Every structure is written in structure tokens, then in C-alpha cells.
Amino acid sequence: MEFTWPWEYDFPPFFTLQPNLDTQRKQLEAWRKLVLDYCRHNKIFVLDVQESISLFQNKAIDRQLSTEGINQVLESLLEYNQIEWCDKAKKQCLVYWKNPQEWGNLIYRYASDKGMTNTVCTFYELTAGDDVQNEEFAGMDQSLLVKALKTLEATNKAEIIMFGGNEGVKFF
Amino acid sequence: MRKRPGIGAIHKQRVEQERFRGKATELQDNVFEQMTSQMEKFRTNLETFASKHRNEIKKNPAFRKQFQDMCASIGVDPLASSKGFWSELLGVGDFYYEIAVQVIEVCLATSPRNGGLITLGELRQRLIKARGKAQHHQEISNDDIIRAIKKLKVLGPGFSIVSLKGTQDTSDILIRSIPGELSADHTEVLKAAEAQSFTSVKALKSTLNWDDVRCLQILNELLRDGVAWVDEQSPEKMYWFPSFFKPLMSEDEIALPPPN
Question: How many A/B residue pairs have CB atoms within 8 Å?
Fold first, then answer.
């Protein structure tokens, strides 16, 4: 299904960082929502800033957000805990259209529904196995998976295990 | 030789005057009585009419408007209170009250985007969408909405009706849901921007014959109010108005609280 772009995307001023602070706040909120919705729709777990330039421009109306604007949007996303940088150079970030806790809960529910408690399951099975193809977390980036599982560890619902060079998890 | 009026004559004159005045008062009383009874007859006829055509009044906006005009012409206001004969007969008090509440909801939901300025057309579309799901489908007209908003104004500041063309034509009416009057200059700029949903200093100078300073000042005030956004990626700074921007007006995603 095609991604539905919000009305702002066709609105030329959306690509100019607004001087009026109240308006700017609304603008950034709309950008945050656009980034999250876009990533959710396209199952993007990790956003590469350079490669995602097309998200911050609309060729149809010949407008694009300036570097300063893009940075403001990313700063705003960070402020709202909707992204987390993967590297100090801020080249890539995890996008939390679901946050680690929400992912943890979803994965746990899947595991208990499938009767997988008290057995060990590899990370590979969880993200790439045949059984999970219809799940939202299919194809999940491993670092995000670890964060999600760590939230389960904190509530004693799971334990991350290393065995024979593989990484896995046991659900309780 | 003219006879000078004596006390008696004056007295007589006075009595005559009194009698005339009395007659006049009596006449006035009579006329007044007749008028009152005539009004009563009007009122009764109106009530009978309303009773007979109750369904039509409820269902048909054009008919409803004519009925309202008829009432107004004899000084009867069916919306005057939500209790009483009229509202019970027609349920109109509640009808307009409901519209007013829904107008507030739509304006609250949309004002983050359009700075609290919405066209009557868009407002009506969103109201119909919101109502269609719940209510027995009473069609509402622009006229209904204006009446409901006028009732809102009675409750306090915060809602005003801005007419871009100065006529009664409802196609160029904006509803402002944020307190503060729009000045005549603001309205001129809105008028100029309406067609394409944007304008510029250059365009305003040529359309309105204003100088640079005046154009910039008004545009900046509209920016400050959140009614306009600026686009700096065109040869000349362009000022855009979400209130007139078609893709926003037809966007579905504005969440309204579910009708109860």
C-alpha cells in the first residue's frame, strides 16, 4: 500500500524552518510524525541521515528542508525519545515508531502465544525465521532487538543467552 | 374687537384638550390592543404552521431558513432559549446548540494547523462528516452554522465571523475561533491570498496599492498569529495560508471526539 503523505508535505512553507516559534513547534511536530509514520510504513528500523534525504524533500513542489532544518527535526525527535543515535558521528539512528519497551512486550506476547516460554530461541529465529514473517518485528535490526529484550530482562520476563557463538534469548 | 380669552375659555380649552388627549390615548390604547391581538394571531398562526411543517423545518435547510426569516420579521426568535415552546415544538434550540458544540470541536481540532481561521466551507464539510455517522441525518446549511455561531458569540468573545467580500454570500466567510479581531488590513490580505492560498509583498503592493512597510507589517502580524507560514525557497518570500490550502481542507485525519 502506498504511503499517504500528510498535507504538510505538499505545503511549500513546510520546508522552510518557520521563524515564528509557535508555528515552528507545530512544524517540527508534523515532521516528527512524518518521520515516524514513514518509517513505520516502510519498516525502517534504522535511518541513515544521508540516505534519507528524499524524506526531507518534495521534488514535485521543488522544495527541500535545509541541513539546519533537518538537524532541528532530528534534535526534536531525540528530545521526544523517538530516535536514538547509533554512532557518535550521528550518521545513523534507530527510529522508535515503537519504543524498545513496546517492542519487548510485543515480542513477549508472541513468544508466550507460541508456547515458546522456557525454551531458547535464537535472534535469527526471532527476526528472520519463517514463523515470524507476518510479525511487525520481522527484519528488526539486531541492536534494537537487544534493547527490546533488555527491557524484558529488567522485568524478569526473559534472559539473553550466548550459546555456541549464537545469540539467543530465553523467555519465562 | 377680539374677545380676550377669559379663565373660563382657557378652562374650556383645557377640558377640550384633555378630551382630545384622552381620545388620543384611548385611540392609542385601541390601536395597541389591536396590534397586540394581531401579533398574537401571527404568533398562533406561526405556531400552527411550525407544528404542521415541523418535519420539513427539521429536514430542509432552505425551508428552515425561510421559516427563521418569517419569525424574525414578527420578532419571534425560536432559538431564544433551549427551553420553552419553540424548542419543544421543533427541538430547534437543541439543534443549534448541538451544531454550536460541534463547531467548537472542529475549530479546536483544526486550529493548530490553520491558526484558528477556517473557511465556512471546510467547517461545514467537517461538521457533516462528523454528524453523518451518528445523528438522524439532518442536513445542515451554511445558514444554520452562522446562526449557531452567532449564538456562540452571545456567550462571550472567542468566535467571530469574518466576511471577505462584505456580502451575505456565505462562500467567502471565515470563522475565527481565536479571540482578537482581525483588522481591515488583515482582511484585505486574506482576500488577496484566498484564491491561491498564498501571496507576497509584491502581489499585495500591486493589488492593494500599499507600500512595502505596510505589506510587511500586516504579513508579519499574520505570521505571528499562526495564520500564515513563510516559504523562503521561491525568488520572493511567499506567505501561505493553511486556511485556504486545499489539501489540508480535504484531509481526513483530523480526529474529532466521538459524538455521544
Answer: 51
Q: For residue A30, what are the CA distances in angstroms to A6, A33, A114, B18? A: 9, 5, 38, 81
Within an 8 Å CB–CB cutoff, is residue B97 touching chain A? no
Instruction: Please answer yes or no on whether B229 and A10 come within 8 Å at the CB atom.
Output: no
CB contact under 8 A, A6 and B253: yes
Total structural domains within chain A: 2
Is B252 an 8 Å CB contact of chain A?
Answer: no
Q: Which residues of B touch A21 (CB under 8 A)?
A: none
DSSP calls for B159-199: -EEEESSSSS-GGGEEEE-SSSPPPHHHHHHHHHHHTTTEE
CB contact under 8 A, A12 and B240: yes
What is the per-residue pLDDT across B183-200, written as a single tens digit (0 to 9) for each?
889 999 999 999 899 999
pTM here is 0.75
Q: Say yes or no: A145 and A162 in one domain.
A: yes
- What residues are paired with B231 via a beta bridge? B238
Together in a domain, A154 and A107: yes
Q: Give percent helix, percent strand, percent coil of chain A, each to the nearest 5.
A: 50, 15, 35
Set of cell numbers at residue B116: 484558528
Residue length of chain B: 260
Q: Of the residues B156, B180, B204, which one is the last residue of a structural domain?
A: B180
Chain B closest-CA separation from residue A112 CA (Å): 35
- State pLDDT tens for residues A151-168: 999 999 999 988 777 789
**Whether residues A154 and A113 fall in one domain:** yes
Instruction: Tell me which residue range forms the domain holding B188.
Output: 182-255
Q: Does the beta carbon of A18 lie under 8 angstroms from any beta carbon of chain B?
A: yes
Q: Can you tell me the ipTM of this complex?
A: 0.86
B240 to A13: CB separation less than 8 angstroms, yes or no: yes
